Amino acid sequence: MLDDRAKLLLKALVERYIADGQPVGSRTLSRASGLELSPATIRNVMSDLETLGLIASPHTSAGRIPTARGYRLFVDTMLTAQREQMQAPSLAADQPQKVIANAAHLLSNLSQFVGVVMAPRRTSVFRHIEFLRLSERRFLVIIVSPDGDVQNRVVFTEADYTQSQLIEAANFLNANYAGMAIEQVRERLKGEVDKLRGEIGALMQTAVQASSDAMSEQDEVVISGERNLLAVSDFSNDMSHLRRAFELFEQKTQLMRLLDVSSQAAGVRIYIGGESTVVPFEELSIVSAPYEVDGQVVGTLGVIGPTRMPYDKMIQIVDITSRLVSNALSHNK
Q: Global pTM?
């Protein structure tokens, strides 16, 4: 347990380091904290904080910097939310894909770091389906979801089909299966294919499989502003840090796992690199929040930046953006 004096000094040290990016010495800390303490007393407290693993001393400096554990204590118990209102940006209601892309861009612009959004798990239910003949043994499947999202898929078949056959197959699917999930349609067709004319049954099975593939193909994580990290001294001074960050963005699997965890928690969450296996790199932190559609959590968004980020401002940005996305995607407005 830290006493009040130690907490105040740790808070001042973290805030000063976030602002300046330089290790904080005892003299600077004395001024920043506003405490009338002798340099010797401050050095003793800093030594205690270092023993507790809350701050560390870089080899090249007499000053100290926060550790992941120090940032965590600061974020959980000392962070003061900014009172001034941010100028509310706008996020127009549109097709889900466009809303998600715009949200990632907005997060990146407001934070000057990296914006990341996990797209909503797309429903496989279709409202309407059409087939359009493109050329011999090649046609286009057009699937419209209940929320108006449109997916297209080009299909190649062994047999050739006329446009009238394609219309017949689409009409049958729309009349009998609209409002059902593609997977259900596929299972039902297996049982009913004998009742249909052979070539139309085969056509519909091929088309439904293609529809299933089209609806499962999506950018699960949308990322914007990776180049912003080039301007962050914590990365630009060490190319290996920058390379590892970009590898994380390219793989996306780790990001998906992290954002999936975030969606299970209410409100804004902060993940600090180095404190757990969730964020694998000590140099990165993520501030995230879930967003909803009609009251149901469907995805997560956030800001990725250096551990030395202004967490109070990032919390505001992420919180506001999650509300904007929820409003833009919800139908019950």
A: 0.69
Find the angle CA(9)-CA(309)-CA(288) to the nearest 5 degrees.
115
**What angle do the packed helices 96-111 and 311-329 form, to 10 degrees?**
160
Half-sphere exposure of residue 25, counting CA atoms within 13 Å on the CB side? Answer: 6
- Cα 27 to chain center, whole Å? 40
User: CA–CA separation, 51 vs 68, rounded Å?
Assistant: 14
Beta strand extents in 67-182 (DSSP E only): 114-118, 128-135, 138-144, 150-156
Q: Which residue, among 293, 297, 287, has the nearest Cα to 317 in the 3D structure?
A: 287
d(CA 145, CA 129) in angstroms, rounded, equals 9
Cα(69)–Cα(66) distance, integer angstroms: 8
Amino acid at 49: L
- Per residue in 44-89, pLDDT tens? 998 999 999 999 988 766 789 999 999 999 999 888 766 556 666 7
Tokens of 153: 């898929």
Bridge pairing between strands 150-156 and 138-144: antiparallel
